[in-house]
Amino acid sequence: MRGVTFDSNIYISALVFGGECARLIRMARAREFRLAISEAILREVITVLREDFHWEPYRLQDARQRMLSIARVVMTDALGDQ
Prior knowledge:
This protein is α/β, with parallel strands linked by helices. It has 4 helices and 3 strands.
């Protein structure tokens, strides 16, 4: 099975607007592929939803739980490939 990761914009678009990005999330939920996410992407999504879209804390928590329910958290190297 193929593994993928989504940019934070995919999650934000799916959560706020739906459309094709929401279809990708549904595919991940259906286990059509393995989805990975980093803590940095999680934080960025939550920050944008809070600051730009003025989501309430309960909605932010729900969004975080939804992302974690479909994606495996992976560790990233903050320094890159140095």
